[in-house]
Design brief:
about 500 residues; alpha+beta; FAD/NAD(P)-binding domain; Glutaredoxin; eight-stranded mixed beta sheet; Bifunctional 3-(3-hydroxy-phenyl)propionate/3-hydroxycinnamic acid hydroxylase; FAD/NAD-bd_sf; FAD-bd; oxidoreductase
Length: about 500
């Protein structure tokens, strides 16, 4: 089959447009279809982490995103009486070279992503065009779409990334079911502008109020968000009125100071699709997983999907890697995403209790164990292209070097080999020569560039993947050789390495 493009992306939200931009950066020809003509005007996601900012940095636009985001300074958990059970400062640069917690107004983020897409050659975002079918074939996919005038088009591609949201029509058409995590609970979300009113001091608060659990987030400029769990006797029509919002916010959102942009009832739910790949079709973002928003990992997980998948598509498209590399997308990402869905669902149980005695027991436990409610350490990837030992499969750090340069700005979207000179010098000559000639690998040996990275990882040498996850660590040249032979562009050097010894 002749392919019109390498990749078709279904959905032009933040996950789909990020995937599209990553395709463009990699040199893949790609088209994304978005059914809405105009940008969605109200917020949905409001938080991402340092890893997400690092992905945006790789697109060359992190500084532009800094102008429309703010770092979270602190997070807290309060109980019914207003007692601060947990208060944690978060305004610091983390291991990723960016703040660990960042707030934003989603339309600002989506507009910038679309600007990136418009500036990148080889890719296109088609708005107002709905994908009605995606069919996988032996050597690609056939995508059927229609525009507002009813004109039907067929696009042939090698692969499709389905990022059309939680209600994914394509996932349903493929017959892929999802597993449920936790209980589905209706909440009211209220976004808007709070002017001349203090709100709450902390930037993010989980209110463990047994009379009505709630969340608070401070966003850029005068924007804030509050979310309230619906109670059995709530009137859906009355609960969204300004007077009701002022009442259930306990005066934090006074009707004369707060101008809402959005007031909507939605459901906290945890879901994981049972399959993330069907032939040449891959699910990503909310089409593959949905989590309650307690740790703000929903959009982060979708961006991770895109970052994990696109570099693999690129290697396969160029013939550097075998098609089997694409099997590692689901095996790596699904357990990682499931961890965050389960963790958020468990936290929802803790925060959402409406039983006063259970809430009292929870408060006592948190007082005695304040660290138990902290944001957990991110997990390793599931089985895939990594060593699975030490820090293999975990997210690698990004030091900021003495001259202020972030490490990724030197490495780009390549594999990184960071090593002490003595370990590198003991490699087989043929392997050193292959590293020098390999356009998919950057080798750094200068202590000024790699010392902080290796010290954080705790190794004399390490190999990092284009998505910044650690392929593996090494303490000797022999261990480093074994890692290097897992890099797709270097797998053919095994015989040369043996001969040179």
């Amino acid at each position: 089959m002749t392919h019109d493009v390498d990749v078709v992306i279904v959905g032009g939200g933040p996950v789909g447009t990020t995937a599209l931009a990553l395709c463009g950066r990699a040199g893949l020809r790609a088209i994304a279809f978005e059914k809405d003509v105009r940008l969605w005007p109200t917020a949905r996601a409001v938080h991402f982490d340092g890893e997400t900012m690092r992905t945006l940095q790789g697109l060359g636009v992190a500084e532009r995103f800094q102008h429309v985001t703010i770092p979270m300074r602190n997070v807290a958990i309060l109980n019914e009486a207003g007692e601060v059970l947990v208060h944690a400062p978060t305004d610091r640069i983390g291991e990723q070279g960016w703040n660990d917690h960042i707030s934003f107004h989603q339309p600002d983020i989506e507009q910038l992503l679309r600007e990136v897409v418009a500036e990148t050659p080889g890719i296109e975002l088609r708005c107002g065009e709905t994908v009605t079918d995606v069919e996988t074939t032996d050597d690609g996919v056939v995508v059927t779409s229609s525009d507002a005038a009813g004109e039907v088009r067929t696009t042939r591609a090698r692969w499709a990334i389905v990022a059309d949201g939680a209600r994914s029509e394509i996932r349903h058409r493929l017959g892929i079911e999802s597993d449920k995590y936790g209980e589905d609970t209706p909440w009211l979300v209220v976004d808007g502008q709070l002017v001349d009113a203090p709100g709450y001091e902390a930037d993010m608060i989980q209110f463990g109020r047994h009379t009505r659990p709630a969340l608070w987030l401070r966003l850029p400029r005068h924007r804030v968000r509050m979310e309230f769990m619906l109670m059995p006797d709530d009137d859906p029509a009355e609960i969204v009125t300004p007077a009701a919002v002022e009442r259930i916010s306990r005066g934090a959102l006074p009707a004369d100071k707060f101008t809402p942009d959005r007031q909507a009832i939605y459901t906290f739910r945890g879901r994981i699709a049972r399959q993330w790949r069907r032939g040449n079709i891959f699910l990503a973002g909310d089409a593959a997983h949905q989590a309650p928003p307690l740790f703000g990992q929903g959009l982060c997980a979708g961006i991770r999907d895109a970052a994990n998948l696109v570099w693999k598509l690129d290697l396969v498209a160029r013939g550097v890697a075998d098609e089997s590399l694409l099997d590692t997308y689901e095996s790596e990402r699904k357990p990682h995403a499931t961890f965050w869905v389960e963790t958020a669902a468990n936290q929802a149980v803790i925060i959402q209790t409406t039983d006063p005695q259970v809430a009292h027991g929870r408060d006592e436990y948190i007082r005695a164990n304040p660290g138990a409610s902290a944001v957990p350490e991110p997990p390793a990837l599931g089985p895939g292209l990594h060593a699975g030992q030490d820090r293999g499969g975990r997210l690698g750090p990004q030091p900021i070097l003495a001259d202020g340069i972030r490490l990724d700005d030197m490495v780009g979207s390549h594999f990184l080999v960071a090593a002490e000179r003595a370990v590198y010098d003991d490699l087989a000559p043929a392997l050193r020569a292959a590293l020098d000639d390999d356009g998919d690998v950057v080798t750094l040996l200068d202590p000024a560039k790699v010392s902080a990275l290796l010290a954080t990882i705790g190794a004399r040498a390490a190999v990092l993947r284009p998505d910044h996850y650690i392929l593996g660590t090494a303490g000797t040249a022999a261990e480093l050789e074994r890692l290097l032979l897992q890099v797709p562009s270097l797998t053919g050097t095994a015989d040369l390495t043996a001969e040179s010894r």
